[in-house]
Amino acid sequence: MGDVEKTLVQNVDQVAKWVDVLIEFGVTYGFQILGALLFLFVGLKAGGWLSRRIQGLCEAKGIDVTLSKFIGNTVKFLILTVLAIITLGNFGISIAPLIALAGASAFGATMALQGPLSNYGAGLSIILARPFIVGNTITVGETSGVVVEVKMAYTQLLGEDGERITIPNKDIVGRVIVNSETRRVVQTKIAVTADADIDRAVEAAKDAVAKALPKADAEAGGAEPQVGLHDFTYGGLILGVRFWVPSSQYYDLRYKVNLAVLAALRAAGVPLLTGVQPAVMAENLSGDGVQEGKREDT
Question: How many CB atoms lie within 10 A of CB 147?
């Protein structure tokens, strides 16, 4: 029992020494740590509040949402960086080695993540250059939609059917971007016979488009529907029809106008081209900006 009591006394003494060390540390650095944590907490709250205020001020001045968010987040990041440096200094930690380590780590991460990080560089370019903003209708390659969100890494579009389309920003920068604001152009080509009265066909088609489109859409932006002789083909003529519609109603109004134009041409006695292979391939007769096709026998 003597050895057990001796060991117990040693353990109690060891615990007492640790308690004394903790008490001494708390007395010496307690207020310093508490002050640093309180400063960090207040700084975080103030940074978030200031970021929201700056973002709201930018939006009130007419700056678009994406750029406003970017400015607000940049201010918040700068505030957090200053807070981190001051807090580490209050704890007695030198930030010079940390800066060197962060620089080396950033270089290694940049080399390892060169592909994904290029999206962020492209996103910064989009936010600053603003080739489009939230609410615009854009076409990038074969992808079209209304811009709903622009992030540093990607841009999200909303299709007419409600689908969300996510495009990495590096696939946008450096490519041709068609920005039609809130509208899209519909281009339709109709093959009629060579002996058709083209003036009657143009007049009938133009009246049909004007009647089929809602008044607000027919007069949008001063862009009136265009109907005319678009091209020539073997055995006939190609009648071209162009008009603008809201992006969210693109296919709905396109199909409605196509039916109205077809009915108007038939009512006006304009014969459609039949029985002859047209020079323009079928899928291009009603294409939007699609490259003209080739003859079947070439």
Answer: 19
Domain ranges in the chain?
2-112, 133-179, 184-284
SS (H, E, C) 117-166: HHHHHHHHHHHHHCCCCCCCEEEECCEEEEEEEECCCEEEEECCCCCEEE
Domain 133-179, CATH class in plain words: mainly beta
Which CATH architecture describes the domain 2-112? Answer: Orthogonal Bundle (1.10)
User: Hey, what are 249's tokens?
Assistant: 């109603």
DSSP letter assigned to residue 247: G
What phi, psi does 119 have (nearest 5°)?
Answer: -65, -35
Q: In what order do the strands lie in the sheet with 143-150?
A: 164-168, 154-158, 143-150, 137-140, 177-179
The angle subtended at Cα 89 by Cα 87 and Cα 93, nearest 5°, is 110
CA distance 227 to 245: 15
Q: What's the whole-model pTM score? A: 0.54
293 vs 234 pLDDT, higher one:
234
DSSP state of 248: G
* C-alpha span between 97 and 93 (Å, rounded): 10
Question: pLDDT tens digits, residue range 145-204?
Answer: 889 999 888 999 988 778 899 999 989 988 888 888 888 888 999 999 989 999 999 999
As its CATH architecture, domain 184-284 has 2-Layer Sandwich (3.30)
Residues 30, 222: Cα–Cα separation, whole Å:
71
Per residue in 78-127, pLDDT (tens digit) is 888 877 777 777 666 666 666 666 666 665 555 544 567 788 788 888 88
Tokens 């029809």 belong to residue: 241
